[in-house]
């Protein structure tokens, strides 16, 4: 029998290489924008060869989700019981940073898993959170309902959501330090000089265009942009699907309008928050309180702007990316003034860690709004930044 020359040169770990490449592409492009052809090209094989390993895109996506969760479970389980929180958080951080390019699948894309796969994934993450919480509570017991553990993991996981170039070792050090400060914070403690921030409440839609946008945002947030139809949006505002085109040229334009609204609202709130601040430390407190208040007030809008930006065409995405960079630059400037030992890259990583804390702590509280919850999340964000 003649040996298959292709089989002779086929790497033994091809399936692993496929999963790694797929994780990067899912993380960068989102589930619906990723294709089996792009994933195959990332491994240097044909789509037909890819289908020999996975029957469809969903099966590959679910495998990617499982792999990272399994890595985190293995990392915390290798830490001896009773070990200090620094050891547990360091283990999680090393895995997360090492697989930074593919880790972004979880924050937004996991909603595309079916019910059973999502249930299993959540069970694995609960195990990781439980191990972190055990260590945190042993060192500083507080009745916080695992909030500090969730927030600390949010600081670590933030590295998967941006592209700041930084050495792996330094990234690990920064994130572990940030997560430890979050774990040591008391979410219920009153912070001297803490600000009460009221953001602009949801405006009442006064035009049909505004009504369409207001109806589309919660649908996009719940089901994902690609899964929502024009018919669903039209039904939510009592229109025929064809009537949408009098106000928007297509569904993508509705998404672009949502992202622009998010960027405009956040920029407006940031400008107001920095009026009459007495110094960089006060400015950081104002920025943190404002970002948390905005996140609670506009939860659906914020999640759409963060999760669906990759689905926009390049010409529509470009101004939104620039707006994001300008927002981060404001934080970076104030943080470096308050903490001059940080270089620009280190400050940027910590700013994103603060955002990660706000998102995961808010989720942990199921975005149930109220002054106590806003204050608790703000305190954790400040901890992530080093205050």
From TrEMBL:
Which InterPro entries has this protein been placed in?
Answer: DNA-bd_HTH_TetR-type_CS, Homeodomain-like_sf, HTH-type_TetR-like_transc_reg, HTH_TetR
- A Pfam family in this protein? TetR_N
PROSITE patterns in alphabetical order: HTH_TETR_1, HTH_TETR_2
Q: Which positions fall inside the HTH tetR-type domain?
A: 12-72, 206-266
- According to the entry, DNA is bound by residues in 35-54, 229-248
Q: Which UniProt keywords apply?
A: DNA-binding, Transcription, Transcription regulation
Q: Which PANTHER family match?
A: HTH-TYPE TRANSCRIPTIONAL REGULATOR BETI, HTH-TYPE TRANSCRIPTIONAL REGULATOR RUTR
Question: What protein is this chain from?
Answer: TetR/AcrR family transcriptional regulator
Q: What is the lineage of its organism?
A: Bacteria, Bacillati, Actinomycetota, Actinomycetes, Kitasatosporales
